[in-house]
Structure formats: structure tokens, C-alpha cells
Amino acid sequence: MRPLELAAAATRPGGRTVAATGSDDPSPNGPEKSHVGPLDTVVLALDDAAATEPLAALLGTVPDGARVLVLLPCAVVEIPVGRLVDTAVRGASSVAAVVPVDDRSHPVALLLERSRSAPSVTWLPSRGFVDLDADQSRRLAAELVLGGATARAQAMADAARIEVLRRRAVAAEADVARLTEVAARLRDAAERLRTSRSYEVGQALAEVRKAPFSGAVKLPGRLRRAGRPASGR
Q: What global pTM score does this model have?
């Protein structure tokens, strides 16, 4: 999904998708608070995932209920979890989701929601966060979402690397088997050649002993067939 398509899907009914920068943006740090409603979704692309100052400035301008879609220029496994969690907590925002997007320069999107109340986390027990204030609850929820996403991405990357190594090992084993077979064939051929040469030489010498004159005449030819030049004898 492309970033703008994701932003449109994240925007509530009646809300708008607002760019954090553009010709209709009079504020250097993002749209003014009056320009963003509680149903709107603001899209912000960071040049550096760890440089969260633009995000912090933006979260200080949007009203409660508004959502911010942060486009990150890094892979999921490279997300600076601590910096982003700190920025979200200071900006009274909850981390709703981490989503890969179809964009080469910004392949990951982080969806935040501005809310002063403590986040509702459905996968925790019904008692929720016991003895935690809103910021502590928000931090824990954000770490669960971001940390879980990076851990899953790292596990998938590790599994992919293991599969690549496994395939290389299988290919190497196949190469070794082929080379072993070739070596065996070469050894067999060498043995056959050695046996053949020995036989030819033996036959030539036997004929010389049996008929010295005719055997001597045939000897050079037999030696050549045996792979030994007559001049070498």
C-alpha cells in the first residue's frame, strides 16, 4: 500500500488527510492547530528516523483525536524504538500501528494518535495497566507495538538468512558430491590407462623374447600405443 492510500485508510469518516508540509502550511513546523481537526490524519515524512524533532513539533500542534502518519526512511528492524517512544509519550500520543508501505525512500509508516487519555490495549488483561499513569501506560503500549514489530521483523530477517545459508550448504554438498564422482572417474581412467600401458609393454617384451628380430621391429609401435615414445626406451 502506498503512503497516501494508507493515510486515507487511517483517516476517520469526516476527516481529511493533511500534509505536514506544503503550500497551504503557514507554520514551519507543520500545520497550525486550527488547520487540523480531531478527525484528520497528518502525514509527516522524516529525513532521519532518529531525528524526531519535526515529529515532536508536529505533535505539539495537533488536537486530541488527530492521527499522525509518520513515514520512516528505514527498515522495520532499524526503527529507533527508544527515540520514537519518547517523542510519542512527550507528545501525548499513542502508537497505533507499524505498517510497511510501498515507498523506496520511506518503506515504513508509524501511525500515532494524539490522546491525553491512557491507551486501551486489547491484548492485555481486562484490568489493564495497574498503578500506571497515562504516560506510563502510553510508553508501555508504544514499546509493545514498536518492540514487537522490530522483533518480528528481525526474526523474519534471521529466518531468511538461515534459509539462504541452508540453500548454499545444500548446493555446496551437491558440488562436493559431483567433484567426488569426477575424481573417482579420473582415478578409474588413470588405472585403466596404467593397466593398458603395462599390458602393451608386457606384450611387446614377450614378443621380443619369443622372436627377437620381428619383436624388435614391432616394439616401437607397441610402446607408442602404450603411451611411451620409442626414443624413451
A: 0.60
